[in-house]
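Standup, Tuesday
Yesterday: got the pipeline producing structure tokens again.
Today: sanity-check two examples.
Blockers: none.

Example 1:
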Amino acid sequence: MEAIFSKTKEKMEKCLNSLERDYKAVRAGRANPAILDRVTVDYYGTPTPINQMAAISVPEPRMLMIQPWDASTLKEIEKAINTAEIGINPSNDGKAIRLVFPPLTEERRKELVKDIAKRAEEAKVAIRNVRRDAMDDLKKLKKNNEITEDDQKTGEKKLQDITDSYVKEAEEMEKKKEQEILSI
């Protein structure tokens, strides 16, 4: 039965990690290098993440600066950023690329908050699906007479407690990200 609990916690942790990765990619009006995590550049025929071929810095709160280690890749990096559709036009000065983040409008903030709420809800649904699968595992153990009915009830209560704590954590992540977006 403990194996079920540890497997359940592991899967729920993955749900929260996925939510956190999604939230990092949400543009909150301030410069965040994580927005470039999914952008790859065709570097000698190999798709390469920008952070493996350039130094990414935040010289100002609303600006990212990308300085490639190989100056000849500047055009490719700029092209990759344009095709990634992250909503920011890069400016190239021949040595570095600057991404200037425009301030968010009230309307855009509300859209982002809705998107954040939707992603949090998806994470909570995923967490509940993990709980359902674990409950099914407990029922199978009971059916095969490997545990008693009391053990099953105790296990179901423990699974519910685990689920509640992970759902609460997802809600806290949502509130924190919402605060970040609305406070700019």
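Example 2:
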Amino acid sequence: MGLSEKEILADALESEKQATGYYNMFSNECVHNNVRDAILKCLDEEHEIQQSVFEEMHARGYYPTPAADTTKVDQVKQKFAQCVK
């Protein structure tokens, strides 16, 4: 008996989450800028893959997300906009 499509996608998403965590940790510990840049490129690519897997799961109804309250969304935007400044 094989894994279901949902299980395969959930495993892929979890793997991507772990990979991004490791790449982030590795980039924080790089001494040489060229190695750090290469690791950051890999991190960016893994984030793109993670987003693709999430979007596919969401589209198939395997990862439902409730609609966010617009007031809360605006509060979070303001909070993080202050961090960027």
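Quick observation on example 2: The mean pLDDT is 93. The CA atoms of residues 18 and 79 lie 27 Å apart.
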